[in-house]
Specification:
Elements (H helix, E strand, L loop, with lengths): L5 H7 L13 E5 L9 E7 L2 E6 L3 E6 L10 E3 L4 E4 L5 E5 L2 E6 L2 E6 L7 E6 L4 E7 L2 E6 L2 E6 L7 E7 L5 E8 L2 E9 L5 E9 L7 E8 L5 E5 L2 E5 L3 E6 L7 E7 L6 E3 L2 E3 L3 E6 L2 E7 L14 E3 L3 E5 L4 E5 L4 E4 L3 E2 L4 E7 L6 E6 L2 E7 L6 E6 L6 E7 L6 E6 L13 E4 L20
Parallel strand pairs: 1-5, 31-37, 35-38
Antiparallel strand pairs: 1-29, 2-3, 3-4, 4-6, 7-8, 8-9, 9-10, 11-12, 12-13, 13-14, 15-16, 16-17, 17-18, 19-20, 20-21, 21-22, 23-24, 24-25, 25-26, 27-28, 28-29, 30-32, 32-35, 33-34, 33-36, 36-37
Length: 442
C-alpha cells in the first residue's frame, strides 16, 4: 500500500496544510541535478509529484509532497526518476496520463502511480510545438498543420483530422472555445518579412476542420487561453485580450506588457513570467507581480501547470513554483440583527496593494493590504435589509464569505477602529427557508 502524502495526513489531522503565503508569491523552485546540463522545457504535476520535461527529451520526476508545509523558499534538486523520451517540447497531463510532445509527435505516459511514470506509446504524426486539451480532444499545433486527436481512450490518442494552414507556416499555439478553434501561426522569408495570423477554425465536426476567418496580427502568440468569452494571447513581451462575443470575428480589445512565452491558467487568472492578469470587461486587471526568471530564447514556448495550491512555470534554468491558494476572508459572526457590525479580516492578498470589497455584487470601496498581504475592515448594517449577503473581492473572485441579517439574531456591536463600509438597502438576497433545492422545493 502506498503511504498517504504528508499534506493529506495534515488535513486529516486538522492541521494547517500550507504556510500563509501571499497569492502568487514564489515559494519554491525545481532545478536539474548539478551534473545534468539539460534545459527545462515543460512541466506537469499530479498528487504531490512534479514532472519536468527537458528539451533534450528527459522526463524527471520530483517528489514535492512536503511543499505545502514549507515556511521558507525551498529548492528541490534531486529527482526520484528519469525517463528517456524522444520528445522535449512540452508535456500536458490529463487524468492519469501525460502527453510529451515534440519532433517525434506524442508519447503517452501512464502516471497511475505518480512516482513511477511508464511509457505507453508513441504517435509520430507531426512535429508538435504546442499541445492543449479541449473537451475530449487534444489540439496539436506544429509545422504547417493543426492536428486533432480524440482522447476518448486517453491511453491511446486517435488521429481525427489534420488541417494544413499553408506551406512553411509555423503554428505555435491553439485553443478551443465551444465549436471554434483559434490558432496563431506565422510565415517568414527569414530576411525582413514576417506575417502573423490568427486563424479562426470551425470545430463543429472535429473530424473535418475548415478555416472561417484569418486575422492579421503584429506579433506571435506562444500561448492562447480562454476565460469566459475572452481570448488571451501571450507573446514574448505582452498579453493581449480579445472579445469572442462573435466567435468567428474576434476583436482585439487591449494589451499589456508582460509575457516570457508562458501563460499558466489558474481559474480566471493568467500567470505570465512575472505578472498575473485577469480579464475585467474590456480591460486586463493586474492581480500580482513577482520577480521573473530568465525566459527561453530558443524560439519555442515553454510550459506551465496549475493545481488548487500552486502554479508551476518552466523557465530557462528551473521551474518556479508560485502559491495559488486564494486569499481568505474571515468574519467574527455569521449572523446578526439589523444594525450589527461585522468585522472581517483578510489574509493572503497581494502585499501593499488594495482589495475592492463587493457585497452581493455591489462595490463598497477599497481596502489597503499591508506588507504581509493582510487587511481588516467592518461592514455596517444600519441601512441594510434583512437577508443574505455574500462578501467578495476583485483581487480574487473565489474569495468569499456569507453573513445573514435576521431580526431574530442579537445585534453585534462594533469591535474596533477598522475602516467601515456601509451595506446599502435594497441589495439583500432572500433568506434561506429550508428547501431542498429541487424544482418543486426550491
Amino acid at each position: 500500500m502506498r503511504a498517504l502524502p504528508v499534506t493529506l495526513i495534515m488535513c486529516l489531522l486538522g492541521l494547517p496544510a500550507h504556510a500563509a503565503w501571499p497569492l502568487y508569491e514564489p515559494v519554491a523552485e525545481v532545478v536539474l541535478p548539478p551534473s545534468d546540463v539539460n534545459v527545462p522545457r515543460g512541466v506537469a504535476e499530479k498528487d504531490g509529484y512534479m514532472y519536468l520535461l527537458a528539451r533534450e527529451g528527459i522526463l524527471y520526476t520530483y517528489e514535492l509532497t512536503d511543499l505545502p508545509l514549507r515556511t521558507s523558499f525551498a529548492t528541490f534538486d534531486a529527482p526520484i526518476r528519469k525517463l528517456t523520451l524522444y520528445n522535449g517540447n512540452g508535456v500536458l497531463r490529463h487524468g492519469d496520463y501525460l502527453y510529451a510532445f515534440g519532433r517525434s509527435g506524442i508519447e503517452t505516459i501512464g502516471v497511475h502511480e505518480p512516482n513511477t511514470p511508464v511509457l505507453l506509446g508513441l504517435r509520430s504524426d507531426l512535429n508538435i510545438y504546442n499541445l492543449v486539451r479541449h473537451e475530449n480532444y487534444l489540439i496539436a499545433a506544429g509545422k504547417e498543420r493543426l492536428v486533432i486527436y480524440s482522447i476518448a481512450e486517453p491511453w491511446n490518442p486517435t488521429l481525427l483530422s489534420d488541417l494544413n494552414l499553408g506551406q512553411d507556416e509555423l503554428v505555435w499555439s491553439a485553443v478551443g472555445y465551444g465549436q471554434t478553434l483559434y490558432a496563431c501561426h506565422y510565415w517568414s522569408d527569414w530576411q525582413s518579412t514576417y506575417v502573423h495570423t490568427l486563424s479562426v477554425i470551425d470545430f463543429s465536426n472535429p473530424a473535418s476542420l475548415s478555416v472561417l476567418n484569418a486575422v492579421n496580427r503584429d506579433d506571435l502568440a506562444y500561448h492562447l487561453r480562454v476565460v469566459g468569452n475572452r481570448l488571451l494571447e501571450c507573446t514574448s513581451d505582452q498579453v493581449g485580450l480579445w472579445d469572442l462575443t462573435a466567435p468567428a470575428n474576434p476583436v482585439l480589445l487591449t494589451s499589456q506588457q508582460a509575457g516570457g512565452r508562458v501563460a499558466a491558467q489558474n481559474g480566471e487568472h493568467i500567470v505570465t513570467n512575472g505578472a498575473v492578469f485577469r480579464p475585467n470587461g474590456d480591460e486586463l486587471q493586474l492581480i500580482a507581480t513577482f520577480k521573473p526568471g530568465d525566459s527561453q530564447h530558443d524560439g519555442s514556448p515553454h510550459g506551465s501547470a496549475a493545481n488548487a495550491s500552486f502554479v508551476f512555470i518552466a523557465q530557462s534554468k528551473r521551474v518556479l513554483i508560485l502559491n495559488a491558494r486564494p486569499p481568505v476572508l474571515d468574519v467574527n459572526y455569521a449572523g446578526g440583527g439589523p444594525g450589527s457590525f461585522f468585522t472581517i479580516s483578510g489574509h493572503g492578498f497581494p502585499s501593499e496593494g488594495k482589495a475592492t470589497i463587493l457585497v452581493n455584487g455591489h462595490t463598497l470601496g477599497d481596502i489597503a493590504t499591508d506588507a504581509a498581504g493582510e487587511c481588516l475592515f467592518a461592514l455596517s448594517t444600519e441601512q441594510a435589509d434583512e437577508g443574505h449577503y455574500v462578501v467578495t473581492t476583485t483581487a480574487h473572485p473565489g474569495t468569499s464569505l456569507s453573513i445573514v441579517i435576521d431580526s431574530g439574531e442579537p445585534v453585534r456591536p462594533r469591535e474596533g477602529g477598522e475602516t467601515i463600509f456601509q451595506i446599502p438597502s435594497g441589495i439583500a438576497y432572500a433568506k434561506y427557508s429550508g428547501g431542498t433545492g429541487e424544482p418543486n422545493d426550491p
